[in-house]
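Methods — Computational structure assignment.
A single polypeptide chain was analysed. Its primary sequence is given first, followed by the predicted tertiary structure written as structure tokens.
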Amino acid sequence: MSRTIYVDNAATTPVSKPVLDAMTPYFCEAYGNPSSIFYSVGAAAGAALAAAREKAAAALGCEAAELFFTSCGSEADNWAIKGTARKFARHGKKHLITSSIEHHAVLHSMQALEREGFEVTYLPVDAEGFVSPADVEAAIRPDTALVTIMFANNEIGTIQPIEEIGDICRRHGVWFHTDAVQAVGAVPIDCHALPIDMLSLSAHKFNGPKGVGALYIRKGILPLNFMDGGGQERGRRAGTENVAGIVGLAAALEIAVNGLSEKRTHLAEMRDYVLTHLRGMPQVKINGTLDGGKRLPNNVNASFTAAEGESLLLMLDMRGICASSGSACASGSLDPSHVLLAIGLPHEIAHCSLRISFGVQNTMEDARAVCAALDEIVPAVRARSPLWHESNGSFI
């Protein structure tokens, strides 16, 4: 049986062997509760937690006291957004700003707050998926409590002008949060060098374990607590810490950051090979920017006229290739991607889209195999499509 080619690394990544090795002792040996500091097993877990926090903070360019561990990136997003909104609501500030292409953890948090009486401005994006900093500034009002704009989009790979947006927020005295789940471990990030107040991340996007994430909260920023209970995470986030997961997060983050330049070069080589190949295929539209410096190094997203995305995925899977048609968090939905609709694609084209996202385990051989498979699959799917025959190959 041929090897499986996994190119859905935007959904999740495999845990690397060094990360697994770092985690293993904290399942069955140093298994104590890190809050149980009065005996050795608990103290050992507490020491591991403190060391992991220091390591992760160093990789992110922040202080250990500014980093709070969560169960995932979605929890971090919820905490940053709802904790900020409810804090400023006490002072009459009930306006929030975000973009139309955010992850559902952000969009659904905003919708939940709207049901509580908050007002949300959803900023549009251009055809490449960029938020305009000028639009952000124009949307800020005296009652604006928070701006939250993702660092990089999980579907089309567009990297937002975070520094410009953050500078605008600083000038207006508005807190700025960024969902950096797709960006951490893929692009350089220095929390103190960037004008951001909060940043969310998730370990399983950079070869760490699932079920653990973190929220960076700049010193002096105090959103209300989201999880109530014990005094873990310095009284800010209740719940017994996932010591093994946190150790894995820190190990994976350190590896990703230390090897970032080489990793980015490797990923971009595969990305650009596929993008170039797709641009030579008939009736294929690349979604997102073609500026490689403003696109995640591993991301390819394209629409294929009259070739339905789910059919492409099934036929790729039959050839041992795992890809996706968009966000894994919305894979059960029959609706087209909200991101693709936001950049102006009609429903019928958005439904015919494919996302390929490379990881460190992939090779140029994988990239060539994906292209060869698409050369066979796309015409086969189109041959069975009445839309293709009706359009005479000119749908896009």
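Note: The chain has 15 helices and twelve strands.
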